[in-house]
């Protein structure tokens, strides 16, 4: 009985406290939010896009079906096979022969050292931050993300008005290694964005040896004398050969039809005929050629004047300047070197330079027929006189 009374009394007390709380004045508790402010003015509604168009632009290039064709073409290319990355660990070769070195070059972070382990500047004149860098631990072939920068994306998505840059890392004009005061730009009607400028980064003469000039004799101390491996862009431009005075005139810079009316990408990345050319194989296709040469039925192997290349080769061999395979020879008949130099008149050194330029260009004169013909004929005259 006493327990029942206790329970009743507790219920009465609790009820009175609840009533007191509900009827008392509100006392703000510190830390509670204040009264909501006035709503802002609504923004202007955006314009709806056209269904499917924007996403289709992405799908056209980024679908697995499209990319698999590119990968298959790339697997046939010189960038993916052969010895294109054989010397990529070297601090002076990695900029072209190593995927990471190429990316570092374009990022402005590329560093290299000379034969004395002293730091040297790259083509963009960035200050070197380390004198101890002497190469890369591993060399990788140039891959998709070497030329393209997925982390940076496209410069513009308005492809209809601005063109498609394919997210290439570089489409700006390039300062040449062999002469940084000379800038090369492959922009043309066939390549209005300058996509071919990507190619110039590596397909240009390396600055190992200067173009022979002046008077007197030239001392050659390397069997590899000449522009190293990639003068395609300068041949197309019609520069960086040794312009020996002769009976054949040199065409003006940048006047070659393959420069003004075509480009690296338009000729070497055209629509494929059977999957083994064009696209990312970089093998020229007849499909592309007939856009200008409408009567062409097959891609020519060489220009008409290329027969003089064999004449120049034989003259240099007869004089003991080069071997049958093209290596420059020293005084004792072995490969030229610091202990076995070749000393020749300037005009003869220029003839050797032109021979190596045409050899390394690998187009058999097709890149620039008129410039090729002038280099050949005037070099032959210099050796015969």
* Low-confidence blocks of residues: 19-27
Indicate the structural class.
mainly alpha
Kindly state the number of beta strands.
6
Distance, first to last CA: 140 Å
Biggest sheet architecture? 2 strands, antiparallel
Residue-averaged pLDDT, rounded?
A: 85
Give the radius of gyration.
Answer: 34 Å
* Shape assignment: elongated
Number of helices: 15
Q: Strand portion, in percent?
A: under 5%
Widest sheet: strand ordering: 1-2
The amount of helix comes to 25-40%
The topology string of helices and strands comes to HHHHHEEHHEEHEHHHHHEHH
Give an overview of the whole structure.
- The protein has 385 residues and is mainly alpha-helical.
- It has a domain at 204-385.
- Helix content is 34%, strand content 4%.
- The chain has helices at 2-23, 53-62, 64-74, 94-97, 99-107, 144-147, 159-162, 197-200, 232-237, 257-260, 264-268, 286-289, 307-318, 346-361, 369-384, and strands at residues 112-113, 119-120, 174-175, 183-184, 217-220, 342-345.
- The strands form three sheets. The protein has a two-stranded antiparallel ribbon.
- A hairpin with a 5-residue loop joins β1 (112-113) and β2.
- α13 packs across α14, α13 runs parallel beside α15 and α14 (346-361) packs antiparallel against α15 (369-384).
- The longest helix is centred in the N-terminal third of the chain and has 22 residues, at 2-23.
- The radius of gyration is 34 Å and the shape is elongated.
